[in-house]
Amino acid sequence: MIYGDPLATKRKGYAMMRGYKTLFIKDHPNSRNGGLIAEHRLVMSDHLGRALVKGENVHHINGDKTDNRIENLELWNTTQPAGQRPEDKVAYAIEILDLYAPELLVKVGV
């Protein structure tokens, strides 16, 4: 089965939940409720090569919840630092870079 195909809704293994295609994959780190995972979250996780972390959401660019092609998905992060002191913001920026662009930390010597 090719994950992400917007025409695959009728294929065996899919269920619909609030308009999203879901699959049963018991051992995936992002699965819930006994093994259910939204296909768009699975596609993004596979694309990143890691499980999604707390605060990460996957957005459908064209608004179609069944179109889970990677080119239609964007990774969004909804977390933000609790404080607004400059040192808190810098620490948070380093956390974000470490998660999403660790190669940039090497360039600035962090």
Element layout with pairings:
Layout lengths: L14 E3 L2 E5 L11 E3 H10 L7 E5 L12 E5 L8 H15 L1 H7 L2
Short synopsis of the structure:
This protein is an alpha+beta fold. The protein has helices spanning 39-48, 86-100, 102-108, and strands at residues 15-17, 20-24, 36-38, 56-60, 73-77.
Word description of this protein:
This protein starts with 14 loop residues before the first strand and ends with a helix. It is 29% helix and 19% strand. A hairpin with a 2-residue loop joins strand 1 and strand 2. The protein has 110 residues and is an alpha+beta fold. The strands form 2 sheets. Strands 1-2-3 form a 3-stranded antiparallel beta sheet. A two-stranded antiparallel ribbon has the order 4-5. It has a domain at 8-79.
The residue ranges in which pLDDT falls below 50 over 5 or more consecutive positions are none
Overall mean pLDDT: 83
Topology as H/E string? EEEHEEHH
Largest sheet: 3 strands, antiparallel
Quote the distance from N terminus to C terminus. Answer: 42 Å
Give the proportion of residues in helices: 25-40%
Question: Helix- and strand-based class?
Answer: alpha+beta
Strand content: 15-25%
Strand arrangement in the largest pleated sheet: 1-2-3
